[in-house]
Structures
1.
Amino acid sequence: MTYCVAIKVDAGVVFCSDSRTNAGVDQVSTYSKMYHFGIQGDRQLVITSAGNLATTQSVIAKIRKDIKDGADISLATLDSIHEAADYVGEVSVAIQEKHANNNSNVSFEASFLLGGQIGLETPAVMLIYPQGNHITTSDQTPYLQIGESKYGKPILDRILKPETGLDTASLCALVSMDSTMKSNLTVGPPIELMTYATNSGQMEHTSFSADNEYLRELTKSWDRLIVEAFLQLPAPPQN
């Protein structure tokens, strides 16, 4: 299983993804699910992926090839995040159909989070479904998730607003990931975090291994503070 979250606030965008791939209890591997595509001074884009690993790797390979070959349509040429999402969706659908023709008994579906900034366009985040269509964030829901999304959702709903700072948004993403790992052992480190401040032209990338001191302290602190907060709640009324 996989968990990826992307956050869009006024200050910029945040991406967080795990790196665990589970093909059964005796086949657990790690693969990065976060990919950076940037042209200095022009665009900075991030893609995270969930779903069939053959599909996601083929999609990323095709995207990279189009850029390398100087294709007319690629992440290096498109003028908006919406156009980029359409392009990634079309590549994904074509690859899914190709794989399905060879094996109709396996699901080759994959979904992607895409975001960043192109030119002076307002930064944006898109969720691209297996069918190729996509949605974006809103002021009411300034985040998108793929993979094992339910466990990490509460902190995002309670804290995130458009005016939330980038550091707070990054912390929300990491706590959301920690909550997911706590409840689903198929999601696990290394954890990757990518942040982009609006109009900065620079992506910041951090990777947290399983024995990372900050990640361990975050888990311990979050566990302790949740218990402390729970113990301070008012008791249920007595009949």
Note: Residues 2 and 147 are 5 Å apart (CA to CA).
2.
Amino acid sequence: MPQPTDCRPAPPGADAGDVIGDALLRAVRALKGARGSAPVDGPCLGVLHAISTRGPVRPGDVAAEIALDASTVSRHVQSLERLGLVGRERDPADGRAHRVAVTSAGDEALDSARDARRAVLDAALAGWEAADRERLAGLLARLADELTRPSAPAPTGENR
């Protein structure tokens, strides 16, 4: 029978928010390279994912959703478009504006990156009991829900 996953206590006097924030940053850095056969890096994958979840969307709306500068998102969208991962169409509500949508090649890139991330996570969690994995998944989903609910504090824009 597998042993329960050890839980490393926070250093004495450490703020739980700091420990959680630092741990999440380390985890994200570890996952950034897991892109499978996707022909783009982590930031472009983040933009591609945001477009995928919203459907045809204006790049400015993507920038607002993921708290990046509009010019940065615009550069990523241009790269994604050159690679055939997104397509551009006129916005039916405003013929002067464009919306972008993920292409089938973009869906394949996202699937490949998702599979690569899953492999990294599966390897990291291989020694964990199923109950611990499920509890972590539930707690992270709950944290993400809390952080992304409309009344959550807005990003300050310091690192855009």
Note: Residues 104-124 form the longest helix (21 residues).
3.
Amino acid sequence: MHRYLHTGGLAVLGAVALVVALALNACGVDSPDPHSDDHVGGHDLPVGDGPQPDASPDESATEALHRIYSWEPATDADSGDGMRRAVPWLSGALRTVATRAHDDTVRALPEWQQWRTNHDIVTAAVKVTARADRPGDLDVGRRALVTQDVMHADGTSTPWRLMTFDITLSRDDDRCWRMWRMDLIDTTTLGAAQ
């Protein structure tokens, strides 16, 4: 059982699920159908089976956020495909949101169709700020910066968006860290997404 099911029980879990759903809704997350080996113009999207035992929580957080916010609109159904690629690095309410059925209320990204037409991909660079964890902690918090760039078919790129998150990870029984909470703190548009 995950350690996030303490004080507050299901009410806390419900609140976490609502916050995550709202944050992902703002970022355009949508329906399930995971796939992993897509690439365009030599820029590979993240691949792999899941977090490694005894890897640091920072490594798991970086990989999860990189997967969530890297997209290939020419082949991805929507930005939710990035979330689904991250499922092995997620747990709890965040994993539930990532694997849920299609939700027609989720707002599509307005840039998606143009990216698809132009064969652009969106890549995410992630910087996780470590905090001083106590030895033996099974839940840890981090601050993460995610920068998204639009990579064009001609090899050029356009900075698009910078997001700041507070995230929480738990160390599961398989000795792997998985992210179960991500709160969007701030988002800044860096340039045109076209």
Note: Helices lie at 9-26, 57-68, 80-85, 92-99, 112-118.
